[in-house]
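TEACHING EXERCISE
Course module: macromolecular assemblies
Task: Read the component lines below, then compare them to the predicted structure of the full complex.
Student: A.B.
Group: 4
Components provided:
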Amino acid sequence: MSLHVVYAFLLRYLFLYTRNWIRIIELIFWPLMELLVWGSLTVFLNGKAGGQVPQFVTYLIGGVIFWDILFRAQQGVAISFLEDVWTKNLNNIFVAPVRPLEYLTAGILFGILRTTVAVSVLIVLAAMNFNFNVFTMKWALVPYFGSLLLFGWTLGMLSSALILRFGQAAEALAWAIPFLIQPAACVFYPLNSLPEWGQMIGRCLPCTYIFEGMRATLDHQPFNWGQLGMSLALNLVWMAAAAGIYAWVLESGRRRGLLTRVTSH
Amino acid sequence: MSEPVLAVHELHRKFGDHVAIEKLSFQIQRGEVLGLLGANGAGKTTAMGSILGMIKPTSGSIRVFGMDPYHDRIKVLRRLNSSSAYSDLPANLLVWQNLYVFAKIYRVQNSKQKIADLLEMFEIAHLRNRVTGHLSAGENTRLHLCKALINDPELLLLDEPTASLDPEIADKVRKIVRRVQREKNIGILYTSHNMLDIEEVCDRVLFMHRGRVVADGTTQEIIAKFDQKNMEDVFIRIVRDGNIEDAPAKETAAV
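Instructor-supplied answer key:
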Protein backbone atom coordinates (compact mmCIF):
# COMPACT_ATOMS: atom_id res chain seq x y z
CA MET A 1 0.00 0.00 0.00
CA SER A 2 1.32 3.45 -0.95
CA LEU A 3 0.91 6.13 1.71
CA HIS A 4 1.42 8.77 -0.99
CA VAL A 5 -1.84 7.74 -2.61
CA VAL A 6 -3.74 7.66 0.68
CA TYR A 7 -2.36 11.12 1.46
CA ALA A 8 -3.43 12.38 -1.98
CA PHE A 9 -7.03 11.32 -1.39
CA LEU A 10 -7.07 12.72 2.14
CA LEU A 11 -5.83 15.99 0.71
CA ARG A 12 -8.62 15.94 -1.83
CA TYR A 13 -11.28 15.42 0.87
CA LEU A 14 -9.75 18.26 2.82
CA PHE A 15 -9.89 20.53 -0.25
CA LEU A 16 -13.51 19.54 -0.80
CA TYR A 17 -14.60 20.30 2.74
CA THR A 18 -12.61 23.47 3.25
CA ARG A 19 -14.01 24.86 0.01
CA ASN A 20 -17.63 24.21 0.89
CA TRP A 21 -19.13 25.26 4.22
CA ILE A 22 -22.42 23.54 3.38
CA ARG A 23 -20.63 20.18 3.67
CA ILE A 24 -19.47 21.05 7.16
CA ILE A 25 -22.97 22.13 8.14
CA GLU A 26 -24.36 18.90 6.69
CA LEU A 27 -21.88 16.97 8.79
CA ILE A 28 -23.52 18.05 12.02
CA PHE A 29 -27.02 19.08 10.90
CA TRP A 30 -28.73 15.66 10.78
CA PRO A 31 -27.24 14.19 13.95
CA LEU A 32 -28.07 17.43 15.70
CA MET A 33 -31.70 17.26 14.59
CA GLU A 34 -31.92 13.64 15.67
CA LEU A 35 -30.48 14.44 19.08
CA LEU A 36 -32.90 17.32 19.59
CA VAL A 37 -35.96 15.23 18.61
CA TRP A 38 -35.07 12.16 20.67
CA GLY A 39 -33.66 14.13 23.56
CA SER A 40 -36.74 16.36 23.82
CA LEU A 41 -39.06 13.37 23.52
CA THR A 42 -37.33 11.54 26.32
CA VAL A 43 -37.35 14.60 28.54
CA PHE A 44 -41.09 14.89 27.92
CA LEU A 45 -41.72 11.19 28.68
CA ASN A 46 -39.57 11.37 31.75
CA GLY A 47 -41.55 14.35 32.99
CA LYS A 48 -44.84 12.54 32.40
CA ALA A 49 -43.59 9.53 34.35
CA GLY A 50 -42.66 11.72 37.26
CA GLY A 51 -38.96 11.08 36.84
CA GLN A 52 -39.40 7.34 37.34
CA VAL A 53 -37.74 6.34 34.07
CA PRO A 54 -34.42 8.18 34.07
CA GLN A 55 -32.59 5.37 32.23
CA PHE A 56 -34.98 5.80 29.34
CA VAL A 57 -33.39 9.16 28.64
CA THR A 58 -29.87 7.87 28.68
CA TYR A 59 -30.73 4.82 26.51
CA LEU A 60 -32.18 6.96 23.77
CA ILE A 61 -29.55 9.67 23.75
CA GLY A 62 -26.77 7.11 24.01
CA GLY A 63 -28.41 5.26 21.12
CA VAL A 64 -28.43 8.42 19.00
CA ILE A 65 -24.73 9.05 19.61
CA PHE A 66 -23.69 5.43 19.09
CA TRP A 67 -25.83 5.08 15.97
CA ASP A 68 -24.26 8.20 14.53
CA ILE A 69 -20.81 6.65 14.87
CA LEU A 70 -21.88 3.65 12.82
CA PHE A 71 -23.79 5.76 10.28
CA ARG A 72 -20.97 8.31 9.78
CA ALA A 73 -18.40 5.53 9.35
CA GLN A 74 -20.57 3.91 6.66
CA GLN A 75 -21.13 7.25 4.95
CA GLY A 76 -17.42 8.08 5.09
CA VAL A 77 -16.65 5.16 2.79
CA ALA A 78 -19.80 5.16 0.65
CA ILE A 79 -20.06 8.90 0.08
CA SER A 80 -16.38 9.23 -0.76
CA PHE A 81 -16.98 6.68 -3.49
CA LEU A 82 -20.21 8.34 -4.62
CA GLU A 83 -18.45 11.72 -4.86
CA ASP A 84 -16.28 10.24 -7.60
CA VAL A 85 -19.30 8.72 -9.36
CA TRP A 86 -21.20 12.02 -9.22
CA THR A 87 -18.27 14.06 -10.52
CA LYS A 88 -17.45 11.47 -13.22
CA ASN A 89 -13.96 11.28 -11.72
CA LEU A 90 -14.05 7.54 -11.08
CA ASN A 91 -12.63 6.88 -14.54
CA ASN A 92 -9.58 9.03 -13.75
CA ILE A 93 -9.06 7.10 -10.53
CA PHE A 94 -9.42 3.63 -12.02
CA VAL A 95 -6.82 4.44 -14.68
CA ALA A 96 -4.41 5.97 -12.16
CA PRO A 97 -1.97 3.86 -10.10
CA VAL A 98 -4.39 3.50 -7.20
CA ARG A 99 -5.04 0.23 -5.41
CA PRO A 100 -8.58 -0.38 -4.08
CA LEU A 101 -7.13 -0.74 -0.58
CA GLU A 102 -5.51 2.73 -0.78
CA TYR A 103 -8.77 4.26 -1.97
CA LEU A 104 -10.76 2.54 0.78
CA THR A 105 -8.20 3.43 3.45
CA ALA A 106 -8.43 7.11 2.56
CA GLY A 107 -12.24 6.93 2.77
CA ILE A 108 -11.99 5.20 6.16
CA LEU A 109 -9.50 7.73 7.56
CA PHE A 110 -11.56 10.64 6.38
CA GLY A 111 -14.62 8.89 7.81
CA ILE A 112 -12.89 8.83 11.21
CA LEU A 113 -12.39 12.58 10.96
CA ARG A 114 -16.03 13.15 9.97
CA THR A 115 -17.24 10.88 12.76
CA THR A 116 -15.03 12.60 15.32
CA VAL A 117 -16.40 16.02 14.41
CA ALA A 118 -20.06 14.93 14.37
CA VAL A 119 -19.88 12.82 17.53
CA SER A 120 -17.93 15.46 19.46
CA VAL A 121 -20.66 17.98 18.73
CA LEU A 122 -23.32 15.49 19.81
CA ILE A 123 -21.51 14.60 23.02
CA VAL A 124 -21.15 18.24 24.02
CA LEU A 125 -24.75 19.12 23.18
CA ALA A 126 -26.12 16.02 24.92
CA ALA A 127 -24.21 16.96 28.05
CA MET A 128 -25.32 20.59 27.91
CA ASN A 129 -28.99 20.08 27.06
CA PHE A 130 -29.95 16.66 28.37
CA ASN A 131 -27.48 16.12 31.16
CA PHE A 132 -26.14 13.05 29.40
CA ASN A 133 -22.47 12.36 29.99
CA VAL A 134 -21.22 9.69 27.63
CA PHE A 135 -17.96 9.48 29.58
CA THR A 136 -19.71 7.77 32.47
CA MET A 137 -19.07 4.66 30.37
CA LYS A 138 -15.34 5.37 30.80
CA TRP A 139 -12.92 3.01 28.99
CA ALA A 140 -15.78 0.84 27.70
CA LEU A 141 -16.34 3.56 25.10
CA VAL A 142 -13.13 2.57 23.31
CA PRO A 143 -14.13 -0.98 22.28
CA TYR A 144 -17.74 0.12 21.74
CA PHE A 145 -16.74 2.94 19.37
CA GLY A 146 -14.14 0.74 17.68
CA SER A 147 -16.60 -2.03 16.96
CA LEU A 148 -19.19 0.40 15.58
CA LEU A 149 -16.57 2.01 13.32
CA LEU A 150 -15.55 -1.39 11.99
CA PHE A 151 -19.11 -2.32 11.15
CA GLY A 152 -19.77 1.10 9.59
CA TRP A 153 -16.77 0.67 7.27
CA THR A 154 -17.99 -2.81 6.38
CA LEU A 155 -21.40 -1.44 5.40
CA GLY A 156 -19.67 1.34 3.46
CA MET A 157 -17.70 -1.24 1.49
CA LEU A 158 -20.88 -3.18 0.73
CA SER A 159 -22.61 0.03 -0.43
CA SER A 160 -19.67 0.88 -2.71
CA ALA A 161 -19.67 -2.64 -4.14
CA LEU A 162 -23.38 -2.35 -4.93
CA ILE A 163 -22.86 0.96 -6.76
CA LEU A 164 -19.89 -0.49 -8.62
CA ARG A 165 -21.96 -3.47 -9.70
CA PHE A 166 -25.31 -1.83 -10.45
CA GLY A 167 -24.27 1.75 -11.20
CA GLN A 168 -25.93 4.88 -9.92
CA ALA A 169 -29.27 3.07 -9.80
CA ALA A 170 -28.01 1.54 -6.56
CA GLU A 171 -27.21 4.93 -5.07
CA ALA A 172 -30.33 4.94 -2.91
CA LEU A 173 -29.07 1.75 -1.26
CA ALA A 174 -25.91 3.54 -0.18
CA TRP A 175 -28.10 5.74 1.99
CA ALA A 176 -30.59 3.05 2.93
CA ILE A 177 -28.35 0.16 4.02
CA PRO A 178 -27.77 1.40 7.60
CA PHE A 179 -31.49 2.00 8.03
CA LEU A 180 -32.29 -1.45 6.69
CA ILE A 181 -30.41 -3.00 9.59
CA GLN A 182 -31.43 -0.41 12.20
CA PRO A 183 -34.62 -2.17 13.44
CA ALA A 184 -32.76 -5.44 14.07
CA ALA A 185 -29.69 -3.66 15.48
CA CYS A 186 -31.68 -2.69 18.61
CA VAL A 187 -30.35 0.85 18.72
CA PHE A 188 -33.06 2.16 21.06
CA TYR A 189 -34.53 -0.99 22.67
CA PRO A 190 -33.27 -4.33 23.97
CA LEU A 191 -32.97 -7.38 21.75
CA ASN A 192 -35.79 -9.23 23.54
CA SER A 193 -38.22 -6.51 22.40
CA LEU A 194 -38.01 -7.95 18.89
CA PRO A 195 -40.04 -10.91 17.63
CA GLU A 196 -38.13 -14.20 17.53
CA TRP A 197 -37.16 -13.90 13.84
CA GLY A 198 -36.04 -10.33 14.42
CA GLN A 199 -33.87 -11.45 17.31
CA MET A 200 -32.21 -14.01 15.05
CA ILE A 201 -31.31 -11.28 12.56
CA GLY A 202 -30.18 -9.01 15.38
CA ARG A 203 -27.80 -11.67 16.72
CA CYS A 204 -26.04 -11.79 13.36
CA LEU A 205 -25.19 -8.07 13.50
CA PRO A 206 -22.02 -7.01 15.36
CA CYS A 207 -23.57 -3.69 16.37
CA THR A 208 -26.48 -5.29 18.24
CA TYR A 209 -24.10 -6.48 20.96
CA ILE A 210 -22.66 -2.99 21.28
CA PHE A 211 -26.04 -1.34 21.75
CA GLU A 212 -26.93 -4.03 24.28
CA GLY A 213 -23.59 -3.48 25.99
CA MET A 214 -24.09 0.29 26.03
CA ARG A 215 -27.41 -0.07 27.86
CA ALA A 216 -25.88 -2.52 30.34
CA THR A 217 -22.98 -0.13 31.00
CA LEU A 218 -25.38 2.76 31.51
CA ASP A 219 -27.24 0.53 34.02
CA HIS A 220 -23.89 0.14 35.86
CA GLN A 221 -23.76 -3.57 35.13
CA PRO A 222 -20.33 -5.24 34.86
CA PHE A 223 -18.70 -5.03 31.44
CA ASN A 224 -19.77 -7.99 29.30
CA TRP A 225 -16.64 -9.33 27.62
CA GLY A 226 -18.59 -12.10 25.96
CA GLN A 227 -20.77 -9.60 24.11
CA LEU A 228 -17.77 -7.58 23.01
CA GLY A 229 -15.98 -10.71 21.82
CA MET A 230 -19.07 -11.77 19.86
CA SER A 231 -19.28 -8.33 18.29
CA LEU A 232 -15.63 -8.34 17.25
CA ALA A 233 -15.85 -11.89 15.89
CA LEU A 234 -18.91 -11.00 13.84
CA ASN A 235 -17.15 -7.85 12.66
CA LEU A 236 -14.28 -9.96 11.32
CA VAL A 237 -16.71 -12.23 9.47
CA TRP A 238 -18.68 -9.32 8.03
CA MET A 239 -15.56 -7.39 7.07
CA ALA A 240 -13.96 -10.40 5.36
CA ALA A 241 -17.20 -11.01 3.46
CA ALA A 242 -17.51 -7.33 2.45
CA ALA A 243 -13.86 -7.18 1.30
CA GLY A 244 -14.40 -10.39 -0.66
CA ILE A 245 -17.55 -9.03 -2.30
CA TYR A 246 -15.82 -5.71 -3.11
CA ALA A 247 -12.84 -7.49 -4.69
CA TRP A 248 -15.15 -9.87 -6.57
CA VAL A 249 -17.26 -7.02 -7.94
CA LEU A 250 -14.12 -5.18 -9.07
CA GLU A 251 -12.68 -8.27 -10.75
CA SER A 252 -16.02 -9.23 -12.25
CA GLY A 253 -16.45 -5.64 -13.50
CA ARG A 254 -13.15 -5.90 -15.34
CA ARG A 255 -13.96 -9.34 -16.70
CA ARG A 256 -17.42 -8.33 -17.89
CA GLY A 257 -16.44 -4.85 -19.00
CA LEU A 258 -18.83 -3.16 -16.58
CA LEU A 259 -16.29 -0.78 -15.00
CA THR A 260 -16.14 1.52 -18.01
CA ARG A 261 -19.93 1.86 -17.94
CA VAL A 262 -20.08 2.78 -14.26
CA THR A 263 -17.17 5.18 -14.53
CA SER A 264 -18.33 7.01 -17.65
CA HIS A 265 -21.99 7.63 -16.79
CA MET B 1 13.79 -1.14 -33.52
CA SER B 2 13.31 -0.67 -29.75
CA GLU B 3 10.60 -2.40 -27.79
CA PRO B 4 7.20 -0.85 -28.54
CA VAL B 5 5.54 1.05 -25.69
CA LEU B 6 2.32 -0.71 -26.59
CA ALA B 7 1.85 -4.04 -28.37
CA VAL B 8 -1.62 -5.48 -28.93
CA HIS B 9 -1.79 -8.95 -30.45
CA GLU B 10 -4.93 -10.73 -31.66
CA LEU B 11 -7.07 -8.96 -29.06
CA HIS B 12 -10.54 -10.40 -28.88
CA ARG B 13 -13.34 -9.26 -26.61
CA LYS B 14 -16.90 -10.57 -26.47
CA PHE B 15 -19.81 -9.29 -24.41
CA GLY B 16 -22.24 -12.21 -24.39
CA ASP B 17 -22.82 -13.00 -28.07
CA HIS B 18 -21.67 -9.56 -29.22
CA VAL B 19 -18.13 -9.36 -30.53
CA ALA B 20 -16.79 -5.93 -29.54
CA ILE B 21 -13.24 -6.49 -30.82
CA GLU B 22 -12.05 -9.17 -33.20
CA LYS B 23 -8.37 -9.98 -33.65
CA LEU B 24 -7.08 -6.47 -33.11
CA SER B 25 -3.31 -6.22 -33.50
CA PHE B 26 -1.09 -3.16 -33.56
CA GLN B 27 1.98 -1.62 -31.99
CA ILE B 28 2.96 1.89 -30.96
CA GLN B 29 6.60 2.88 -30.85
CA ARG B 30 8.01 5.60 -28.63
CA GLY B 31 7.36 8.96 -30.28
CA GLU B 32 4.63 7.62 -32.58
CA VAL B 33 1.01 8.82 -32.71
CA LEU B 34 -1.48 6.15 -33.75
CA GLY B 35 -5.04 7.20 -34.52
CA LEU B 36 -7.84 4.80 -33.69
CA LEU B 37 -10.81 5.66 -35.86
CA GLY B 38 -14.29 4.32 -36.16
CA ALA B 39 -17.96 5.11 -35.66
CA ASN B 40 -19.68 4.72 -32.31
CA GLY B 41 -19.66 1.04 -31.35
CA ALA B 42 -16.64 0.25 -33.55
CA GLY B 43 -14.70 -1.03 -30.52
CA LYS B 44 -12.41 1.93 -29.80
CA THR B 45 -13.54 2.43 -26.20
CA THR B 46 -13.30 -1.31 -25.50
CA ALA B 47 -9.77 -1.30 -26.91
CA MET B 48 -8.83 1.71 -24.73
CA GLY B 49 -10.43 0.11 -21.65
CA SER B 50 -8.51 -3.12 -22.27
CA ILE B 51 -5.19 -1.29 -22.60
CA LEU B 52 -5.90 0.56 -19.36
CA GLY B 53 -6.64 -2.72 -17.55
CA MET B 54 -10.32 -1.92 -17.02
CA ILE B 55 -11.60 -4.63 -19.35
CA LYS B 56 -10.19 -8.14 -19.39
CA PRO B 57 -9.65 -9.45 -22.93
CA THR B 58 -11.51 -12.62 -23.91
CA SER B 59 -8.34 -13.72 -25.69
CA GLY B 60 -5.19 -12.23 -27.18
CA SER B 61 -2.53 -10.23 -25.44
CA ILE B 62 -1.69 -6.64 -24.55
CA ARG B 63 1.79 -5.58 -23.52
CA VAL B 64 2.45 -2.08 -22.24
CA PHE B 65 6.19 -1.48 -21.73
CA GLY B 66 6.43 -5.27 -22.04
CA MET B 67 4.01 -5.82 -19.13
CA ASP B 68 0.44 -7.09 -18.91
CA PRO B 69 -1.76 -4.12 -17.88
CA TYR B 70 -4.25 -6.46 -16.28
CA HIS B 71 -1.80 -8.22 -13.97
CA ASP B 72 0.88 -5.51 -13.59
CA ARG B 73 -1.71 -2.78 -13.33
CA ILE B 74 0.04 -0.41 -10.92
CA LYS B 75 3.47 -0.64 -12.58
CA VAL B 76 1.94 0.04 -15.98
CA LEU B 77 -0.33 2.86 -14.86
CA ARG B 78 2.55 4.73 -13.20
CA ARG B 79 4.18 5.13 -16.62
CA LEU B 80 1.15 5.98 -18.75
CA ASN B 81 -1.69 8.45 -18.53
CA SER B 82 -4.94 9.16 -20.29
CA SER B 83 -7.54 11.79 -20.95
CA SER B 84 -11.11 11.17 -21.97
CA ALA B 85 -13.81 13.54 -23.09
CA TYR B 86 -16.20 11.36 -21.08
CA SER B 87 -14.69 11.82 -17.65
CA ASP B 88 -14.38 14.93 -15.50
CA LEU B 89 -12.24 16.18 -12.69
CA PRO B 90 -14.10 17.15 -9.49
CA ALA B 91 -15.93 20.34 -10.43
CA ASN B 92 -15.85 21.85 -6.94
CA LEU B 93 -12.06 21.84 -6.59
CA LEU B 94 -9.81 24.60 -7.87
CA VAL B 95 -7.75 23.93 -10.98
CA TRP B 96 -4.46 23.70 -9.05
CA GLN B 97 -6.03 21.50 -6.37
CA ASN B 98 -7.14 18.91 -8.92
CA LEU B 99 -3.69 18.80 -10.47
CA TYR B 100 -1.99 18.72 -7.08
CA VAL B 101 -4.00 15.66 -6.00
CA PHE B 102 -3.00 13.79 -9.17
CA ALA B 103 0.59 14.95 -8.80
CA LYS B 104 0.62 13.31 -5.36
CA ILE B 105 -1.01 10.13 -6.68
CA TYR B 106 1.69 9.86 -9.36
CA ARG B 107 4.44 10.84 -6.88
CA VAL B 108 5.56 13.78 -9.02
CA GLN B 109 8.72 15.47 -7.70
CA ASN B 110 8.57 19.23 -7.34
CA SER B 111 4.86 19.07 -8.08
CA LYS B 112 4.14 22.81 -7.69
CA GLN B 113 6.66 23.72 -10.38
CA LYS B 114 5.41 20.92 -12.61
CA ILE B 115 1.83 22.18 -12.32
CA ALA B 116 2.92 25.74 -13.06
CA ASP B 117 4.84 24.56 -16.17
CA LEU B 118 1.91 22.54 -17.50
CA LEU B 119 -0.60 25.35 -16.95
CA GLU B 120 1.80 27.68 -18.74
CA MET B 121 2.27 25.28 -21.64
CA PHE B 122 -1.48 24.92 -22.17
CA GLU B 123 -1.95 28.68 -21.72
CA ILE B 124 -4.26 28.38 -18.72
CA ALA B 125 -1.91 29.60 -15.99
CA HIS B 126 -4.32 32.47 -15.30
CA LEU B 127 -6.98 29.89 -14.36
CA ARG B 128 -4.90 28.33 -11.60
CA ASN B 129 -7.26 29.48 -8.84
CA ARG B 130 -10.48 29.08 -10.82
CA VAL B 131 -13.12 26.54 -9.73
CA THR B 132 -12.90 23.65 -12.17
CA GLY B 133 -16.67 23.59 -12.69
CA HIS B 134 -16.52 27.17 -13.95
CA LEU B 135 -14.16 26.40 -16.83
CA SER B 136 -15.29 26.49 -20.45
CA ALA B 137 -15.16 23.27 -22.51
CA GLY B 138 -11.88 24.33 -24.09
CA GLU B 139 -10.29 25.25 -20.76
CA ASN B 140 -11.52 22.01 -19.25
CA THR B 141 -9.99 19.96 -22.06
CA ARG B 142 -6.67 21.71 -21.55
CA LEU B 143 -6.87 21.00 -17.82
CA HIS B 144 -7.45 17.32 -18.61
CA LEU B 145 -4.40 17.35 -20.81
CA CYS B 146 -2.38 18.90 -17.98
CA LYS B 147 -3.52 16.03 -15.76
CA ALA B 148 -2.65 13.55 -18.51
CA LEU B 149 0.92 14.89 -18.69
CA ILE B 150 1.49 15.37 -14.96
CA ASN B 151 3.62 12.21 -14.63
CA ASP B 152 5.59 12.66 -17.89
CA PRO B 153 3.99 9.53 -19.35
CA GLU B 154 5.76 7.37 -21.89
CA LEU B 155 2.41 6.35 -23.35
CA LEU B 156 -0.60 8.64 -23.57
CA LEU B 157 -4.14 7.54 -24.39
CA LEU B 158 -6.33 10.37 -25.62
CA ASP B 159 -10.00 9.61 -26.12
CA GLU B 160 -11.59 12.29 -28.32
CA PRO B 161 -9.65 15.18 -26.80
CA THR B 162 -11.20 17.75 -29.13
CA ALA B 163 -14.83 16.66 -28.73
CA SER B 164 -17.12 19.66 -28.14
CA LEU B 165 -14.35 22.21 -28.76
CA ASP B 166 -14.67 25.12 -31.16
CA PRO B 167 -12.33 24.98 -34.20
CA GLU B 168 -9.88 27.54 -32.81
CA ILE B 169 -9.42 25.75 -29.49
CA ALA B 170 -9.35 22.36 -31.19
CA ASP B 171 -6.55 23.65 -33.42
CA LYS B 172 -4.65 24.89 -30.37
CA VAL B 173 -5.06 21.53 -28.62
CA ARG B 174 -3.85 19.62 -31.68
CA LYS B 175 -0.76 21.79 -31.96
CA ILE B 176 0.07 21.42 -28.29
CA VAL B 177 -0.39 17.64 -28.38
CA ARG B 178 1.89 17.41 -31.40
CA ARG B 179 4.49 19.66 -29.79
CA VAL B 180 4.50 17.76 -26.51
CA GLN B 181 4.73 14.46 -28.36
CA ARG B 182 7.77 15.64 -30.31
CA GLU B 183 9.51 17.26 -27.35
CA LYS B 184 8.99 14.37 -24.96
CA ASN B 185 9.00 11.52 -27.48
CA ILE B 186 5.76 10.06 -26.14
CA GLY B 187 3.80 7.26 -27.79
CA ILE B 188 0.18 8.34 -28.22
CA LEU B 189 -2.99 6.40 -28.97
CA TYR B 190 -5.51 8.96 -30.20
CA THR B 191 -9.19 8.35 -30.87
CA SER B 192 -11.34 10.96 -32.53
CA HIS B 193 -14.34 11.50 -34.75
CA ASN B 194 -12.70 14.65 -36.05
CA MET B 195 -10.89 13.79 -39.27
CA LEU B 196 -8.87 16.99 -39.13
CA ASP B 197 -7.46 15.78 -35.80
CA ILE B 198 -6.43 12.52 -37.37
CA GLU B 199 -4.84 14.12 -40.42
CA GLU B 200 -2.90 16.69 -38.43
CA VAL B 201 -1.85 14.69 -35.40
CA CYS B 202 -1.51 11.03 -36.31
CA ASP B 203 1.46 9.34 -37.97
CA ARG B 204 -0.59 6.25 -38.72
CA VAL B 205 -4.25 5.32 -38.50
CA LEU B 206 -6.21 2.18 -37.68
CA PHE B 207 -9.76 2.24 -38.93
CA MET B 208 -12.10 0.01 -36.92
CA HIS B 209 -15.55 -1.06 -37.97
CA ARG B 210 -17.74 -3.43 -35.96
CA GLY B 211 -14.78 -4.56 -33.89
CA ARG B 212 -12.44 -5.26 -36.79
CA VAL B 213 -9.61 -3.33 -38.37
CA VAL B 214 -10.66 -2.47 -41.90
CA ALA B 215 -7.81 -0.13 -42.79
CA ASP B 216 -4.30 0.54 -41.51
CA GLY B 217 -1.73 3.00 -42.77
CA THR B 218 -0.98 6.68 -43.11
CA THR B 219 -3.94 8.92 -43.92
CA GLN B 220 -2.64 9.29 -47.50
CA GLU B 221 -2.42 5.52 -47.93
CA ILE B 222 -5.93 5.01 -46.61
CA ILE B 223 -7.40 7.78 -48.75
CA ALA B 224 -5.72 6.24 -51.81
CA LYS B 225 -6.82 2.71 -50.89
CA PHE B 226 -10.45 3.71 -50.69
CA ASP B 227 -10.17 6.06 -53.65
CA GLN B 228 -11.69 8.99 -51.75
CA LYS B 229 -10.85 12.70 -51.53
CA ASN B 230 -10.21 12.84 -47.82
CA MET B 231 -10.50 10.93 -44.53
CA GLU B 232 -14.00 12.17 -43.92
CA ASP B 233 -15.17 10.53 -47.14
CA VAL B 234 -13.33 7.35 -46.20
CA PHE B 235 -15.06 7.39 -42.80
CA ILE B 236 -18.49 7.83 -44.36
CA ARG B 237 -17.87 5.15 -46.95
CA ILE B 238 -16.70 2.58 -44.41
CA VAL B 239 -19.49 3.27 -41.97
CA ARG B 240 -22.26 3.35 -44.59
CA ASP B 241 -21.15 0.47 -46.77
CA GLY B 242 -21.50 -2.70 -44.77
CA ASN B 243 -19.65 -4.81 -47.38
CA ILE B 244 -16.49 -2.78 -47.48
CA GLU B 245 -15.10 -4.19 -44.28
CA ASP B 246 -14.44 -7.67 -45.61
CA ALA B 247 -12.24 -7.05 -48.62
CA PRO B 248 -9.90 -4.39 -47.28
CA ALA B 249 -9.76 -5.99 -43.85
CA LYS B 250 -7.76 -8.95 -45.13
CA GLU B 251 -5.37 -6.79 -47.03
CA THR B 252 -4.88 -4.17 -44.39
CA ALA B 253 -5.00 -6.10 -41.14
CA ALA B 254 -2.56 -4.40 -38.86
CA VAL B 255 0.81 -5.64 -37.68
